[in-house]
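Before going further, learn to read the protein records used in this course. The integers have meaning only within a learned vocabulary of local backbone shapes. To see the layout at work, look at the sequence and tokens printed below.
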Amino acid sequence: MDLRQLRYFVAIVEEGSLSRAAARLHVSQPPLSTQLKALEAEIGATLLERGNRGVTPTAAGAGFYAEVCGVLARLDQAKARARQVHSGEVGMLAIGFVSIADYSLLPPALKTFRARYPQVEVQLQELTTDAQIRELRAGRLDLAIGLAPVDEPDLAFSRLRREALVLAAPNGHPALAGEQAVDLRTLARASFIVPPRDIGPGLYDLIISRCQAAGFAPRITQRARQMQTVIGLVSSGMGIALVPASVQNLKRSGVQYRALRGRPAQIELGVLSRRGAGSPLVRHFAETLRQVAVEDEAADPA
């Protein structure tokens, strides 16, 4: 028994005639009769009765027809599902992201992606870049949004956007006097809150290098892994921080932000993935991120 015989049988029942079924299937009538006889012989029952009024199913044929229609419908659904999976229209995507992405690119990218691919389940995990690297290698993430630099031979990093660092300071801090940009040299005696270098070497090194370029080594009094924790410590008066500009979207009472004077210190946010392992789903989400990044840059070229 093969699918061709089943489709022949269904066509004969629905057309009520071998000749009409043959025309519908674009085959000649003799092969149709041969396949029907082979099907009946395999089942061991007469499925169709031929009479003056055409071809009608027997009781066994009617029962078989109902089952076959269900099988063919499920098969068509399976084929459609396979095509959707192959093209990246359905499935599950595990994405890691640094907290900075949650204040900038990730929300609009998710909105756009879900509108385009409503049958894709997206699982999100907030992770530092070093943790993203481990999870990608373990196969527990499909894609990540992390911070440069990433120099791993088995992983690919594609830049999405650059962000300037800004000052986050508690209300009442002397650096907040006025609305003008802050000269980094005036912060030489301040208490700095920074991320540990092992989880964010790019951001950490950028902060240290810019302070050194301003003529001082920052006095680090607190380290925090997550950006919301950094801002929470700033709001409680524990110190100041240099943070990516998008963190300003994290509204927290007791914290104010100021631009830094001079050449901007910039970090890079990008897409991180395993080399040679990109599925259509991964490509679709990465393309959505790039589109949102381009639109965001066009809306705010500064």
